[in-house]
Amino acid sequence: MSRVIFHDPQDQPRPAAPLAAGEAVRDTFGRPLRDLRISVTDRCNFRCTYCMPREVFGADHAFLPQSALLTFEEITRVASIALSQGVRKIRLTGGEPLLRKQIEVLVQMLAQLRTPDGLPPELTLTTNGTLLARKAEALAKAGLTRVTVSLDALDDAIFERMSDSGVAVATVLQGIQVAAQVGLAPVKVNMVVRRGMNDQQILPMARHFRGTGHVLRFIEYMDVGNTNGWRMDEVVTGAQIIQQIIQEFPLQPLQAQYRGEVANRWAYTDGAGEIGLITSVSQPFCGDCTRMRLSPEGRLFTCLFADHGHDLRALLRSGATDDALRDRLAGVWSSRSDRYSEIRGEAHRDHKIEMSYIGG
Fold first, then answer.
1. What is residue 197's three-state secondary structure?
2. Which of 46, 168, 227, 298 suits a disulfide with 56, CB 3.0-4.6 Å?
3. What DSSP string runs through 117-179?
4. From CA 274, how far away is CA 211, in angstroms rounded?
């Protein structure tokens, strides 16, 4: 098995071959670029133990200054160029993206973009839900397609221990309800499962969201970043999660809806909806990964487990043409050889980007 080639951050990506209109640029394994995840802030009002533990991200933690963040105009310009390279889905992340002031203005700007064949991109957002009830209507009117909400437990004590936030579960549930009412549906609900922390909440979560029209997705606890104290023995695998649920609710597997879909889909046999399993640890899906990530201050990352990014902000602020930006983006993707989850045991990295900085 060959190892991942890690390019020096100062290296220039190799030039990409010219693309036909609407054609997706492909990486060294032939994977097309289809998804752009844009982190709009590195700040969050949660301190989840698996993502942003308070002992590291405390009161004295230095977040990015406002001047370092890409402006909405810069983000929209990058997104427009990405659409010309094959991107069809844009997801706004953080940190907590709803902490970015006037985020609905950015949504409106992105919703006006079109692919080379004249179609709008699918435009989604991932949030912890605390501000969603207040923001959902404005986001929907601005053109947001759908929303994903992180919720790791229904029990308030367990939820507070996981999120270290002091926020009540009812606040997040209200956000999900309001989002659905204004048309941001079906809402996807993401639950990170960590053995010994919230694994006893698998069945209560399944019971709660069955029949609601929302899609509950269970995520294996991952070794993202450097601060979450990840251990393999704390991973509850997708297979173990299914075994728990199927004892109470019969399930049947569903086919993937598109290449690069991260979740294995299962339907309740009685028609009460579906669940998803995101199994980056036990069943890696690197072979179909179509996602590029843009950090808050304009660095491109080609893997959630990357150890460096590629600077776009310098180009954006130096008067670079769209063609120069297009070449840079295509060059980064066409040089990509990441498949960290497939070779997790071989590919030790001393420093990985934090999930709170680049989004999930």
1. coil
2. 227
3. TSPPPEEEEEE-STTHHHHHHHHHHHT--EEEEE---SSHHHHHHHH-S---HHHHHHHHHHH
4. 9
How confident is the model over 35-46, as pLDDT tens digits?
Answer: 999 999 999 988
Q: Which residues of 311-337 are buried (b: 16+ CB within 10 A; e: fewer)?
A: bbbebbeeeeeeeebbbbbbbbbbbbe
Cα distance between residue 76 and residue 78, in whole Å: 5
Average pLDDT of span 87-103? 96
Picking from 36, 94, 30, 86, the residue whose alpha carbon sits closest to that of residue 300 is: 36
Structural contact between residues 274 and 266, judged by C-beta atoms closer than 8 angstroms: yes
- Distance (Å) of CA 195 to CA 12, 127, 207, 218: 42, 23, 19, 13
Domain ranges of the chain: 35-358
Could you please state the CATH topology (level 3) that the domain comprising 35-358 is classified under.
TIM Barrel (3.20.20)
DSSP string across 291-339: EEEE-TTSEEES-TT-S--EE-HHHHTTT--HHHHHHHHHHHHHT----
For residue 77, pLDDT over 80 is answered with yes
Structure tokens at 183: 């048309």
Q: Which residue has the higher pLDDT, 344 or 192?
A: 192
The pLDDT tens digits of the residues spanning 106-129 come to 999 999 999 999 999 999 999 999
Would you put residue 143 in left (φ > 0), alpha (ψ -120 to 50) or beta?
left
Arithmetic mean of pLDDT, 2-7: 31
What span, in angstroms and rounded, lies between the C-alpha atoms of 132 and 148? 10
Give the number of C-alpha atoms closer than 13 A to the C-alpha of residue 47, restricted to the C-beta side: 12
Strand 310-311: give its sheet, edge to edge: 251-253, 264-268, 274-278, 215-220, 188-193, 146-150, 122-127, 89-93, 35-39, 291-294, 299-301, 310-311
